[in-house]
Amino acid sequence: MALLTKEYLSKFPDFPNHMENLAKLVYYRTYSRWLPNEGRRETWKETCARAVEYNCSLAHTSTYEAHRLFENMFELRQFISGRSLWIGGSKASKKTKLANFNCSFVVIDSINALCDLFYLLMVGTGVGVRILPSDVEKLPPFRDDVILHSQYNSHSTKQRGREYTITEQHDDMFIIKVGDSKEGWVDALRAYLNFMATNSECQHIMIDYTEIRVKGAILSSFGGTASGYESIMDMFKKIHRVIQDGLFSSKPVNGKLRPIHCLDLCNLIGQNVVVGGVRRTAEIAIIDPKDEECVHAKDNLPKGMEHRYMSNNSIFQEEKPSREKIHELFNSIRKSGEPGIINVAEARRRRADFAGVNPCGEVLLPPNAVCNLTTVNMMAFVENGKILLDGLEEAFILSARAGYRMTCVDLELDGWNTAHHRDRLTGCSMTGWQDFIASVSKEELKRVGGKKGLLQRLRNIVHTAGEDIAMELKTPVPLLMTSLKPEGSLSLVANGVSPGVHWQHSPYFIRRIRVNASDPLALTAKKLGWQIHPEAGQDMETATTLVIDFPVKSPATVTKSDVPAVEQLKEYILFQKNYTDMNTSNTITVKPDEWEQVEDFVYKHWDDMLGVTFLELNSTYYPLMPYEACTEEEYNELKDSMKEFDPNLLNEFELSSRNMGKEFEILDDRAECSQGVCPIR
Fold first, then answer.
1. Which of 59, 186, 478, 637 has the fewest CB atoms within 10 Å, i.e. is most exposed?
2. 140-253, which class in CATH?
3. Domain 6-99+372-496 has CATH 3.40.50.2300
4. If DSSP codes are grouped into helix, strand and coil, which group holds residue 117?
5. Which is nearest to 405 in space by CA: 84, 95, 146, 681?
6. What is the CATH class of 508-553+620-656?
7. What was the pLDDT predicted at 672?
8. Whether the model pTM is above 0.90
9. Exposed, middle or buried by CB within 10 Å (0-12, 13-18, 19+), for 350?
């Protein structure tokens, strides 16, 4: 029986009155599902109801708790995971349970691990992959004497093929007939890799793609459209060349892959998924600090090797590096932002069986494990400089309990339930922190114990809530419960509050969102007369990408360009010591003259740091920057000129363009874990 009845929901409008145009556009772009029976996209109320109802169905939940969680989400005070907002309660969420999770981690030490990576990326879950030499050594040797053939018997209208993969052998030909489903594609990869690892006199392998539906066919469960057969065929061809002759590096010796080969395999899989019908690919590759091939994998990449950009790369630092080594690493970081550094000793102090992290580095995981992260919008609990403490505490309780309920889901991949049900990870995060601090008086902050006291208080509340729900359900207490994610898209849905623990760009600024020019969202923005530009280097008549301007006002008096890098690091440590059980995802922006200070600080405070990314603060102006400071007058002028977003107009364009729910690539990788890039980066 529904906890959120039609009668209850009828009291709420489609959107809260204070939800601004920026929030609505990002919501429609990222989370709103197409309702075929209604011939339209969901409203915010419907998305919140779907996601909350699903979350509360996973374990016994009172009607009161479901109502409070829904009301907070509807009013933009807190959010269950972005994954749940998009897929929770849909057919896909019930059939494909792993699609409900933000984060996962695998060690690439077996054929199954590569196949699990493929599946996880296809359902939209971000994946951390560890490719240390000791991991990769466990892979079997692969053959280098196999000739690959491809086959596709053309069909012009096939909307659905046989879902499962079939293998056959005829004389000297091993045939893989790829099934038209996520499972079918994964099984095809598994069959291929197993054949390549098997001693056989058969020297020919044929991969038949005939059953794969045509490009553009509607994907009924996940939404979006099919990629056709070309992307997966290209993936197999490149994987075959990597295994047989190295392709992008030197050839494997005696069929044994090195970490650089595995990095290429993982990235090629990710590249194929991006081309396909899912929303994103997010990968982090965890590498050995002595593995020069992987450490320098992205240096001066020639054309044809763009797949290596699919992952962020971080080194698995088991011992404190020398001051000289830190300097060497930061020379590389200064140029490209990579490699990231993971302090393994600190990670293992927080969880003894730590093996790796998720793509944004805030979740500490063992092999074959997942996590979901919930968010509280701190800015929603400030009124006239006062902290609405009771409401804030309730939101963190609700956040912990919602996160815990996700651990009650049984996962469909073999071997993935063990850690999931044992650890019960519930990453409770927050956003809008710096805006919150800027909005609260010193006296009010002192009343709650200052930043340190408030963070400790919130962590204790989360832990108590986790213990309480575990006791109610007679299931294990969560191993770790608090974490800080970058909060890209959800900070925008919360009306553009400061993302995670990061500082705002400026008190008033233009936030630019990129959309495909054919997307009904772009057509709607045009019709409303919003301020729109063709992408730099394009013209309006033929543009493939449009850039939409949104005015944002922040309570910030101190912005990211004002805060020294060392002070940002101190804020990170503040969270690590007082709130965060796992890690605080934070990108430290460094001015050109601050790098030596940063290196010294990292060396001196190594034991307090788990994993932070660094990026040089770029003062260079280029056209249509994602963030551009503006005056209060410019802000007001743009805000006053913008008509309210009209969902009815959007639906008209959906139907007239025959789009009807087709998903377009999220082009603004600074707002989403997209293309393997951390949102803030």
1. 637
2. alpha beta
3. no
4. helix
5. 84
6. alpha beta
7. 40
8. yes
9. middle
